[in-house]
UniProtKB/TrEMBL annotation:
Chain ranges of the Peptidase M16 N-terminal domain: 73-220
Domain Peptidase M16 C-terminal: 230-398, 672-851
Span of the signal peptide: 1-43
InterPro entries linked: Metalloenz_LuxS/M16, MPP/UQCRC_Complex, Pept_M16_N, Peptidase_M16_C
Domain of life (superkingdom): Bacteria
KW Transport (keyword) present: no
MF terms in GO: metal ion binding; metallopeptidase activity
Family: Belongs to the peptidase M16 family.
Name the record gives this protein: Insulinase protein
UniProt keyword terms in alphabetical order: Hydrolase, Metalloprotease, Protease, Signal
Region ranges (Disordered): 710-745
Originating organism: Gluconacetobacter diazotrophicus (strain ATCC 49037 / DSM 5601 / CCUG 37298 / CIP 103539 / LMG 7603 / PAl5)
Bias-annotated ranges (Pro residues): 717-727
Length: 921
């Protein structure tokens, strides 16, 4: 769910990430979908939400372990990064053990774990989760189902009590399943609307035919239609036992006391006799070719094989092989700078007992993919015959080992790493993976390549773009039908939760970082945090292509950005990438630039980053290729349902001729020159519009010195500073647009309008509190009315967006075509109700507790420190805005919330934009 405020952003895994991305191959599905986008569009779609700042800390302590008499295994890792704790309970069962004919049973039970248990009903569970102020969710894979909470460390006892009650006795009523069935079937419909999901599901059924992996963890509508509460109860009784679970706790807590709390909560739950597990023994694979229509802007050609799984002795070698095949110095990626592919690489999706490897390349819409497929097969054939380059094996090993250090840079990430190692991979600790990686030899990788890359066992696929038609505009819906809902009622918490969560307090002030400004105008923000021997650097050049691209040169910003990957004036593309590989660093340059590097190599990494950002090569041959690729990509992109959907949203909330409605013309792109690129770079890349954030194992003085020596000589251009902010816009009006998408089986809907306030207006604090009540989280009104009570949707959220001169409001959801109207009316009903009368004291207290208690949690992630700092700089807000927010939340009244929603939100002006298979209704 979207937080709805400038600063109220949780360090959480989103519902889409958890309920979808980790359902077996769907993470790879997302990757393939992103690969189908032009690079600049990719960056826009995966931008992370802004987190908050951590303070200086010590590294995580060694793990403390215990096994209870009932068989529950417990691991506690103390990490003093922030006053936060994550619990992750891993049940060692997943989709592989679903009853025959009922794929998705484990996934359905995962949903029902949030529907209440003996001693804790679903409303109490949602209220506690909101009051904790953190994140809670779950995911299902083939072999493991995981449930995780992140909350203030003082609330560990509450979190443990919740999990113990769910392990002890789940409610599992037929009435609750009937409601949840509608929501989970909406989830199925959403994923079936993804061509890449359809492809990956088919691929999985071929590679793992006749095994428990034949179906992924999602499930199917027919299986859910015949599932009942009794079936789910049987699955729960067989597998949800303490001796079939591993509990991982990470955070700033005392390990011995934590284990005592675990014993008190779980100790009297009896162990159970566990059923035998179904083995996964895939048979031989016969080569074949698959074909799928897509709504992507470009085509994809893929070649896939079965690979070792996470528990295999060959897993480490398989990961190294995948890294070599996906290396930007490798032969597959070389298809891109050669102009033979729009994208090329290798994706590895391992499951516990087996995995999938996919070589993928993108081609322009309308082009014959046969030559590109022949190139892929020739490259992979040569690797199978001749082996892999030894230097790429060493580079891959260094980078994998470095990533083990980076992965410890958040409390929730630490819990997830340990859960992955223990529950999924069967290791004793994450470090064992490092030991395995160090032992991999070039001969091991060559042997695996010969075994895996066998054309007789390859599954080839073509994902070909098809047009769905142009958007159709209609009149606004003109108000909503009546939507009767049961009256709101305060939720009485159990005594143990009420005692722990009853008090509202201001969180401690967030310590401000060190801030420096150099003579050329560049600003540096330093956030020391010693959680690992790593340093993360993020930079932002404030620019806006809609405002800065010369007329007729739309697309020049994207081309300029893409050219940064072609090296510097002193190091060509391959030499530059090798220099990064030599220090196991990850780097990107452009308007948003970054560096992830081990502490000893910080200065060398910064020299490379500065060389790339300040002295890009912009070689003519690369320009010719990138310009052609951009024209080809945009030619497909401009006709895709996703693009048309986004453009329809912009048109609905913006006046005609608004800068955001500019779009590239593929024919004009081909008329751009390299001198146009150089001119745009000179005007748009400026130190006085640049902010750099350095976070991690660093002191402010050291960061200031190194950044000064690498970026301090960047000259400030003469002349006035360019205008990069969009101008204010008038209030939008109701309208309706439908975007056809023939590949989808579910509608995606947005209700949207422009707002006349910005992030600097104090009313946005009240709107954030109201949004917490209306549409942020499992206890929100929208979630309650559109999912829990009706099953109209799988997910729903509302969101306020801000910029320096603009604001916006939107409600988004996905639903079957016949449920969109009812879901829309229910959503508008909830907005009107929020304006019509003050929210209840219980709702207000819950929202304030959630936001106030959530603020300290934002210090629990190191990797995303810079995103919030850069976000606040971009909005022109001070870096202590979270403290201002805390004071505003603490004193907020129901009248404040009602007044803000009455003043700024206009339900009758909400435009409706729908993408999906249905026609205008």
């Amino acid at each position: 769910m979207t937080a709805g405020g400038v600063y109220a952003v949780r360090a959480t895994r989103s519902i889409q990430q958890i309920m979808t991305a980790r359902l077996a191959t769907t993470a790879l599905s997302l990757s393939l979908a992103l690969l189908a986008m032009p690079p600049s569009a990719m960056a826009a779609r995966v931008e992370a939400p802004p987190p908050a700042r951590p303070a200086a800390t010590e590294q995580a302590d060694a793990a403390v372990r215990a096994t209870l008499p009932n068989g529950l295994r417990v691991v506690v890792i103390r990490d003093r990064l922030a006053p936060v704790v994550t619990t992750e309970i891993n049940y060692l069962v997943g989709a592989s053990e679903a009853p025959k004919g009922f794929p998705g049973t484990a996934h359905a039970l995962e949903h029902m774990m949030f529907r209440g248990s003996a001693g804790l009903d679903k409303d109490q569970l949602a209220a506690i989760g909101a009051r904790l102020g953190g994140s809670y969710n779950a995911d299902t894979t083939e072999n493991v189902t995981q449930y995780f909470y992140t909350a203030p460390a003082e609330d560990l006892g509450v979190m443990l009590r919740i999990e113990a009650l769910r392990m002890r006795g789940l409610a599992l009523s037929e009435a609750d399943w009937e409601k949840e069935r509608g929501a989970i079937e909406q989830e199925v419909a959403r994923d079936l609307s993804s061509p890449s999901y359809q492809y990956l599901s088919r691929l999985q059924s071929i590679l793992f035919a006749g095994t428990p992996y034949e179906h992924d963890a999602l499930g199917t509508r027919p299986s859910f239609d015949k599932t009942d509460a009794a079936l789910l109860r049987g699955f729960y009784d067989r597998w949800y036992a303490p001796n079939n679970a591993i509990l991982v706790i990470a955070g700033n807590i005392d390990p011995d006391r934590a284990i005592d709390q675990v014993r008190a909560a779980f100790g009297d739950i009896p162990r159970r006799d566990l059923p035998a597990r179904t083995p996964v023994t895939p048979g031989p694979v016969k080569a074949q070719t698959l074909r799928f229509p897509t709504d992507y802007p470009v085509g994809l050609t893929t070649v896939a094989w079965r690979m070792p799984g996470l528990t295999s002795k060959d897993y480490a070698a398989a990961q190294i092989l995948a890294d070599v095949l996906s290396s930007q110095r490798g032969a597959l990626y070389a298809l891109v700078p050669a102009g033979k592919a729009l994208f090329a690489g290798f994706e590895f999706a391992p499951k516990p007992d087996a995995g999938i490897g996919i070589a993928v390349a993108a081609f322009p819409k309308g082009q014959d993919p046969a030559p590109l497929l022949a190139e892929i097969n020739a490259i992979l054939g040569a690797i199978r015959r001749n082996g892999v380059p030894a230097d790429l094996v060493e580079a891959a090993r260094r980078k994998e080992l470095a990533q083990l250090g980076f992965s410890a840079n958040s409390i929730s990430g630490l819990a997830e790493n340990w859960s992955q190692a223990l529950a999924v991979m069967g290791l004793n600790a994450p470090d064992e993976l490092g030991t395995a990686l160090k032992s991999v030899t070039v001969a091991d990788v060559d042997r695996l390549a010969r075994q895996i890359l066998d054309p007789a066992q390859a599954i080839t696929a073509q994902l070909t773009p098809e047009d769905s038609g142009k958007p159709v505009a209609g009149k606004g819906f003109g108000g909503s039908e009546s939507f009767a809902t049961p009256p709101d009622h305060p939720v009485a918490l159990p005594d143990w939760a009420r005692t722990a969560l009853s008090t509202l307090t201001l969180p401690p002030p967030v310590g401000l970082p060190s801030v420096f400004t150099y003579p050329n105008g560049l600003q540096l923000i330093v956030q020391p945090a010693r959680v690992s021997h790593t340093i993360s650097v993020y930079g932002q050049v404030r620019q806006n292509a809609d405002m800065q691209e010369p007329k007729g040169q739309e697309g020049i910003a994207s081309i300029t950005e893409d050219l940064f990957s072609y090296g510097t004036r002193s190091l060509d593309r391959l030499a530059f990438q090798k220099a990064l590989d030599d220090i196991a660093a990850t780097e990107s340059a452009g308007p948003g630039f970054s560096l992830s590097v081990l502490t000893p190599d910080f200065e060398q990494g910064m020299r490379l980053l500065a060389d790339n950002e300040l002295h890009p090569a912009f070689p003519d041959q690369a320009f010719q290729v990138v310009r052609m690729q951009a024209a080809q990509s945009y030619a497909g992109l401009l006709q895709t349902p996703d693009y048309l959907f986004g453009r329809a949203i912009k048109a609905a909330v913006s006046p005609p001729g608004d800068p955001t409605l500019r779009q590239p013309d593929p024919r004009r792109i081909m008329g751009l020159s390299l001198s146009d690129v150089r001119a745009f770079y000179a005007s748009a890349y400026r130190p006085d519009l640049t902010t750099i954030v350095v976070a991690g194992d660093i002191t402010p003085d050291r960061a200031r010195d190194v950044v000064g020596r690498t970026f301090g000589a960047w000259p400030r251009p003469a002349g006035p500073t360019p205008t990069v902010d969009l101008p204010p816009r008038p209030d939008s009006r109701a309208a309706r647009t439908e975007v056809p998408d023939h590949t989808s089986v579910q509608d995606s809907a947005i209700l949207a309008e422009s707002l006349g306030l910005t992030a600097s207006h104090p009313d946005h604090f009240a709107l954030s509190v109201g949004n917490e009540i209306l549409g942020d989280g499992f206890s929100s009104r929208l979630y309650r009315d559109l999912r829990v009570r009706t099953g109209y949707v799988y997910s729903v959220s509302s969101n306020f967006s801000w910029s320096r001169h603009r604001g916006g409001y939107s409600i988004s959801f996905g639903a079957d075509p016949d449920k969109v109207g009812r879901a829309r009316d229910a959503a508008i009903h909830d907005v009107v109700a929020l304006q019509a009368q003050p929210v209840s004291d219980d709702e207000l207290t819950l929202a304030k507790a959630s936001l106030l208690r959530g603020l300290p949690l934002q210090r629990a992630s190191l990797d995303s420190i810079a995103a919030e700092d850069l976000h606040l700089v971009n909005l022109g807000l001070p870096l202590d805005t979270p403290d201002t927010a805390a004071r505003a939340y603490y004193t907020m009244t129901a009248a404040d919330v009602q007044k803000a929603f009455r003043t700024w939100v206009r339900p009758t002006d909400l435009a409706e934009i729908v993408k999906g298979p249905a026609s205008i209704r």
